[in-house]
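Memo subject: From amino acid sequence to discrete backbone structure tokens
Keywords: amino acid chain, backbone geometry, structure tokens, three-dimensional fold.
Body of memo: The sequence and its backbone structure tokens, given next.
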Amino acid sequence: MKKLQLLIAVLFLGTISSLTAQDLSKVSISGSVDAYYRANFNAPNKSMILSDGSELGPQAPATSFANLPGFALGMANIITAYEGEKVGFVADLVFGPRGADAVFNSTGSSNIVNQLYVYWSVTDAVTLTFGNFNTFLGYEVISPTGNFNYSTSYMFSYGPFSHTGLKADIALTDNWSLMASVMNPTDLTDFNPVGTYYGGLQLGYENDNGGTWLNLLYGDQDGKLDDTGLLSPVSMSAGSTFQIDLTTGYNVSEAVYLGINATYNTTAAGEMYNGTSIVDTDGDGAGFYGFAGYLQAAASENFSVGLRGEYFNVFNNGLDGVVGVDDAGDGNVFALTLSGNAKISENFMLIPEVRLDSMSEDNYFLNNDLAGSKSLSSFLLAAVFSF
């Protein structure tokens, strides 16, 4: 693996060195480095051996990133971009735990690739992008430099992270935009092992104070709906997945910003191969939905405070182990996150954060007495450097 990663780096540097001086003026390098400290207030901060002999890891919210105990690493992010008059590329590489979590479905030598795409501005109004790009759904992003809160929401964690495919961005007017795409199934970014595809649409409106985006995603994730030859007897396939997502954010005043994200995701009950044919399975679809509000206020030029409140609901066992569920497979969580952004310099930010996760069902978390609890309170302090 190290040799393969070294080979990627050598090829990358070789490409940069072959560019002319005029080309180099169009190349930019940016990125970030982050680390953090995290501790629970009302739960253990270390692994525990339970009475049945199994090991339980440190208690943490079931969201992506910022879930490790004590002093922990985020990621190093290096983004190289070439911006020509009509064409260009972006090579976005990530290293560290946060980066590994972001590209969890990648394999082989490209498991450090967060984004890798080329684009062509066909006209002033139409741009085509081909390759691996971060998702257009949701309010939050993978890089900590793009979020106010350091820890991430449930909706972001279980919506898509990245896509590989072809998309067209179309400027309809000065304020309205449309994006249409065809892509591999969600987060299958290196290649397509299942032979099915997703379609994506986004309608956006932006003005000087912010914007609103309506996002749609539809497709077959596992590729087993019509491929009986790939199914062993009595094997199951998931049905098609549909997700609709609304993201909006506006500056209410010079010092106050308000953002909203709402999403709904459902996967049909699917089909079963009984050894001779594919038959429909009974049952309702499964999935999740949620709503989050983001309120941020600038106390001074160098310090801002932000509150994220999120309600997240799982239905019909739509996600395994994310929240506590009842006998019907339904459950929800309310998470409240208060964060500060302290700007130490132009490139360096400290983010203190307090978070409370409260489940609808008991016994999801363990408290300091190792008794079941529905809530978890925690603190973290993150340091983020960008360049």
Remarks:
- The first strand starts at residue 27 and ends at 40.
- The chain has a mean pLDDT of 88.
